[in-house]
Amino acid sequence: MTKTAREIMSGGTECVGENETIAEASRKMKQLDVGALPICGEDDRLKGMLTDRDIVVKVLAEGRQPEQTRAGELGQGKPVTIGADDSAEEALRTMAEHKVRRLPVIDGHKLIGIVSQGDIAAAIDKEQVGELVGAISS
């Protein structure tokens, strides 16, 4: 397989701004019918990923107010990304290593899309999946 992240990603990715509230982010997730959104800073750089699980575990379960909690508060550490020209195999290895299901695709410093496990599964055949899973597990 020689497909790149750019070739298999879902493009047109919308961000939630780091200063938008969790309530606003939740509405955007519902509107887009997605379970995760990249968090983008005022400088147009990726600050992290916000998932529906983050909202439940880090906001609601802790008694925080979604209308007062900012998305940027949940984007902790350096986000795990994949380069646009990196291979689908590298994307799968990165997902396994960091235990994530989605990877923002970066071209330079610009977010251009997201690669999901489903995107990778659709791009590679079953034999390659078995080989990659075996390699990752070793």
* Proportion of strand residues: 15-25%
Reading the helices and strands in chain order gives: HEEHEEHEHEEHH
Helical fraction equals 25-40%
Largest sheet, strands/sense/barrel: 4 strands, mixed
Structural classification? alpha/beta
Q: Assembly state here?
A: single chain
Total helices: the number is 6
Please tell me what the overall shape is.
elongated
Q: Count of DSSP E strands?
A: 7
* Estimated radius of gyration: 16 Å
Low-confidence stretches: none
N- to C-terminal distance? 20 Å
Side-by-side strand order of the widest sheet? 1-7-6-5
Q: Averaged pLDDT, please?
A: 87
How does this model look, in words?
With 138 residues, the chain is α/β, with parallel strands linked by helices. 39% of the residues lie in helices and 22% in strands. The chain has helices at 5-8, 22-32, 52-60, 88-98, 117-123, 126-137, and strands at residues 10-11, 16-17, 36-40, 46-51, 82-83, 102-107, 110-116. The protein has a four-stranded mixed sheet with strand order 1-7-6-5. Strands 2-3-4 form a three-stranded mixed sheet. A hairpin with a 2-residue loop joins strand 6 and strand 7 (110-116). The mean pLDDT is 87.
Give the helices and strands, then pairings.
Layout: H1 5-8, E1 10-11, E2 16-17, H2 22-32, E3 36-40, E4 46-51, H3 52-60, E5 82-83, H4 88-98, E6 102-107, E7 110-116, H5 117-123, H6 126-137
Parallel strand pairs: 2-3, 5-6
Antiparallel strand pairs: 1-7, 3-4, 6-7
